[in-house]
Predict the structure.
Amino acid sequence: MKTNQSTKKIVARLRTEANRPELWERVEGFTSLVRPTAIRLTPTMAKQLNTLATFHGAHSAEELAKQWLKERITYELALIEKARRQVG
């Protein structure tokens, strides 16, 4: 029983710390604090992403995925801005 209560206290402390931005590390290239986000991939997708990361010379599959997401987000936001200028 004591272990269960101890675990609950640890989890509660970690949750509290997770909501304190000053405890998050700063990452180069970002102007604000970065919070980890998990994207779950199927085993096949993970293997394919690793293969592509190696092919493209990325240090990791995560790095390649971040690069692709950044490119796509930038592209989509530019499209939205262009549409707004044409409408408004």
